[in-house]
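Kindly inspect both lines:
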Amino acid sequence: MSETANDLTSLLQKAVHDAFRERRPLRIRGSGTKAFYGRAVSGEPLDLAEHRGVIRHEPTELFATARAGTPLAELGEVLAEHGQHLPFEPPMHGPGATLGGVLACGLSGPARPYRGAARDAVLGMRIINGKGEVLAFGGEVMKNVAGYDVSRLMVGAMGTLGVILDASLKVLPRPAAEATLAFDVSMHDGLIDVNRWSASPLPLSAACHDGDRLFVRLSGSIRAIDSARRRLGGDVVEDGSRFWNALRDQSLPFFADGAGPLWRISVPPATPPLSLPGTWLADWGGAQRWLRTDSPAQGVRSAAERAGGHATLYRGAANGEEVFHPLPDALHRLHENLKQAFDPGRVLNRGRLYANL
């Protein structure tokens, strides 16, 4: 690690240690592209934007290590030079999005059901806990990661358990070819088709219904894609990558023009469309449903629960309103115990995940 990076780590460590000693809350901040997500947090900003840079990339070992403040675009360029990418297709939500931000929020793009989630790509991590101690978990290659992998607890914890310093991630080769097909079917029929296709040896890497049409992405060898296209039919979408990037970063018209709060509903992929009013978009082959609605939060969450899932108020939460689905008592106690272990002074992103965490 460079001297400058060591200096920045020391400064961050001291800031957290002082906050713990004085019981002052801190608000972890990167580029700010995910600031809308989660509950509002008060406290002194702890800025990670300068703690950036790719530390190591081993193309033959299929891993890369980068600091939390590293822009995803910068990391992507380094990987692209060797024909590789992050398998979970991290959402940007704006220019300057950082590695630490997408990991802390636990966000994954359209490829998630087919290549794994952000959590699945994490091999190791260094963090600063709520007492100002630097801790390291995991390793850099899969064979060195054994036992209970604490680093993956940090993915989706919204900074409430620790300040991510750097992370080692699994990377994969970019597919040789890709094609996007569109089908004029209803959401109900489209989800049935996708779930049937997912049980077949087809090179699926994304599937989405935007409320009007079903879009399917095929990734792999040219031969495999040509065979799948002949089998599935549909219309070929020119420059399909533009559609998937817009879906990933929520710049499709559905996200920009919709009225009402935006809900993210996770359900089993074969779940029929839920009987809730509003406008819908289905991603992840049906496992992730986006809903624009003015329906009461309790009604949305109850419908998700009946389908065996849960609902997150992704955008548009009122001040103080709970964003994430309420946890069962036993699971909530587990979260409280983890918070006590990693951040006993309750100084890191206090209340970002749940009011008492």
The domain at 3-173+338-342 is CATH 3.30.465.10 (Uridine Diphospho-n-acetylenolpyruvylglucosamine Reductase; domain 3). The two ends are 32 Å apart (CA to CA). The first strand starts at residue 26 and ends at 29.
